[in-house]
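Example record used in the benchmark description.
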Amino acid sequence: MSLRVCVLGAGSWGTTVASIAAKRSPTTIWARREETAREINAAHTNARHLPKVELPYTLRATAALEEAVRDADVIAVGVPSHGQRAVLDEVKKHIRPWVPLVSLSKGLEQGTHKRMTEVIAEVLPNHRAGVLSGPNLAREIMSGMAAASVIAIDDDMIARQLQDVFHGGLFRVYTNRDVAGCEFGGALKNVIAIAVGMGDGLGVGDNTRSAVITRGLAEMTRLGCALGGKPETFAGLAGMGDLVATCISPQSRNRHVGEQLGRGRTIEEITAEMHMVAEGVKTTRVVLELAEKVGVAMPIAREVYGVLYEGRSARDAYRGLVRMRAGDEAEPG
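Model output (C-alpha cells):
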C-alpha cells in the first residue's frame, strides 16, 4: 500500500517535492494561503512560485494544517527555517505516532544554531527526522530535466522507504546516513552563493568565480566537519553538487541576492521585492557564530556578513579577500 505523503509549504521546492511524490503516492500539500490551495486544486498550477508549470492532477492542497497532517504516513517540511518551529508546534497536535519527518529547508535556526532535524527532534522527540538535500533547482525538475538528491536519515529501513517515496522519473534519490553533513552542506552553500553572486554583480570574471566556489567549498567542509559532518559528504551531492548549482544558476535566490548587492543595491531593497526566502541572508549570521564557537576561520562568510550587516560594499568585500595572505591551499584564506 502506498504511503500517504504530506508536504508542508507550497513554495517552489515544496510544490516540486509534492508533485514528485504525487506521481507515486497519495499526496497533500499544505499552503498558508487559502487562494494558493484553491488554485492548486482547481487549476493545477501554483503561478506565484512556479509560473507556467502544470501540476499533477492527483496532487491535493489544503490551507487547513490538521487536514494535511492527520492521516499522513510521511511528512516533508518545506517551511523556511525561521518559521519551522512554530509550524511544528501546530503539527504536534495532529500528527500520528511514529510518522517520520523530512526537512526540505536549507537553513539554520537563529539563536539556537540548530539544524532543522534537531528542531524537529526537539519538538517531536518520538519521530524520526531526516533531510532531502542536493542540487535541486525546482523549475528544472518540473520541466522534466534530470536531477539527483540525497535522503539522509539514521535508519536504513526508513531511508529506503523514503527513497521510494521521493524517487521518480529523472529525479534520482540516493541515501546517506550523515544527516549533519547533508544539512550543513545545504545551509552553508547559500552563504557562498551570495559571495559568488556579489562577484557576478561586480563583473569579476569566471576565474574569480571559480576560485570563490572552490575556496568556499573548503570553508564549508572545515566548519561542517568540525560540527559533526563527514568530509566525503561535502564532496557529494549535498555539498559540492548543491554548491555549484546554487552558485551558477540564474534561478538561485541566494546568488540573485549577491548579484544585486554587487550592483550596489541594499539588502533591504532586495529582500523587499522577493516573495521567496533566500535562506543565506539569515544563515550567514548563524554560520559566523558557529564558526567562532568551534574556532574555524570563515573568511568568505565573514566578508558576506560585512556586506549584509555592517554596511560594507561588495567591492570592499572582494578587496578584503584579495588582500588576504595566500598560504598553503589546505589553510584558511
